[in-house]
Task: structure prediction
Amino acid sequence: MNSQTEIPKELIQTIHEADHVAVLTGAGISAESGVPTFREAQTGLWAKYDPQELATPQAFRRNPKLVWDWYSWRRALIHKAEPNPGHLALAEMAKIVPKLTLITQNVDGLHQRASSQDVIALHGNIMETKCFANGHLLDSWPESDDVPPHCPICNSLLRPNVVWFGENLPAYALQTAVQAAQACDLFLSIGTSALVHPAASLPLMAVENGAATVEINPQETPLTRWMDFVLRGTAGELLPKLLTQLR
Ligand code: OAD
Result:
């Protein structure tokens, strides 16, 4: 394992030789767009809440208004945010390598807005809304003062279309991500604490498969020891540098 702040030449060569690059991103890649990560201290109004205790079906059952309001706050932040140079560099990298599969745990849609294609959104999309009881996906619902509003089809409460702790990931997304992790010859893990499974198992599948592996994160994670290359710095700084050297 090779931990550094500059991009090693061997890594550039490895990317040039790769036929299939798989990338897993986490909240860290959106940090430089102003979207707070999950495990950093929350600020302001939400400082006293632990996101991990809000992002569960139990929390929603207990206090649906609290959970709805937290997501409304995150949605408003994301609405104002723009893709940063890290998101943009990944979208460009996909045009350079023969095949790139982009898998994200983020629900913010910033990769898609940076023009990445076929993004596998393992944890859903915060801008979408569904109902709690039956998962009816809704574009609109009748105006009311109720928070959260009710489903016009079944009258259950509405919630964001994201995956909460204890819920299953969308089956097709997970299956496609696993296939990429098992087939790729290079796997990049970017801006994720690698604590939440099954997403955090993907880089380890790539290790088992013999792929070269890279971590980009300012902090050490449980994955670090398994990685061939460890780049210590932010995604917004390192990915554009990587792209420049690839060109
Ligand atoms: P976390 O908040 O757990 O971790 C963010 C990671 O990004 C940390 O390892 C930071 O060191 C790193 N980081 C911070 N700033 C960075 C930067 N500028 N560039 C690169 N890395 C940076 O977020 P996730 O790993 O995405 O799930 O969390 C995984 C899942 O747990 C989330 O999708 C969410 C969460 O609770 C659900 O909501 C189900």
